[in-house]
Q: What sequence folds into this?
């Protein structure tokens, strides 16, 4: 059964937030605005977009608690970035100004349209889930994972070398993807793969 976790008010005690996660069997961290660079030790660059301090604080707490519990986690777009920062990694705040030779990663196309290829590490969870090491994805971002946190590995890349997926080597099922499979699967059920993996792992957790 899906459960929506609304962003808690800043005045709410963090222990209450952590307890809310303990009643779940899995966690999906979704897309959204940019992450405050102060959370990974950087000052904001000119290309930084809008941020949500309340959501940042809330999601850092619940994602860290999910990792402590070895709970299945899937991070999508902002979600992979939240996962990276929560675990001690860093981000490119704006790839267009901070990385040379990047593709257009914020496509001006329908949500379901696939824009560029990703290449997965053979034997990785993301490759195994899809039954393929190469496939096309959509792309709607200008931030991405820069330094993968300890205990995680990058498992898919775009042709320009940017990280498109990462997964934990210390947890049973913790995966982050930079694309938006929820936008593609209604037209191509191949992209249900990461959701199926999360649900299967959550059933084992239950």
A:
């Amino acid at each position: 059964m899906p459960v929506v976790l609304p962003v808690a008010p800043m005045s709410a005690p963090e222990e209450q937030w952590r307890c809310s996660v303990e009643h779940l069997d899995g966690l999906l961290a979704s897309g959204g605005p940019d992450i405050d660079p102060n959370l990974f030790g950087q000052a904001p660059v000119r290309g930084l977009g809008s941020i949500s301090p309340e959501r940042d604080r809330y999601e850092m707490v619940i994602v860290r608690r999910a990792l402590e519990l070895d709970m299945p986690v899937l991070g999508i777009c902002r979600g992979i970035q939240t996962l990276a920062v929560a675990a001690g990694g860093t981000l490119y705040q704006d790839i267009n100004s901070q990385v040379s030779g990047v593709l257009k990663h914020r496509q001006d196309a329908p949500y379901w349209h696939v824009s560029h290829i990703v290449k997965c590490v053979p034997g990785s969870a993301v490759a195994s889930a899809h039954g393929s090491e190469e496939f096309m994805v959509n792309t709607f971002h200008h931030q991405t994972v820069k330094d993968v946190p300890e205990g995680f590995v990058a498992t898919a890349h775009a042709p320009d070398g940017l990280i498109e997926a990462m997964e934990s080597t210390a947890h049973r099922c913790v995966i982050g993807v930079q694309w938006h499979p929820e936008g593609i699967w209604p037209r191509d059920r191949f992209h249900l793969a990461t959701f199926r993996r999360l649900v299967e792992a959550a059933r084992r957790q239950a």
About this structure: The longest strand covers residues 152-157. Residues 74 and 195 are 8 Å apart (CA to CA). The mean pLDDT is 96.
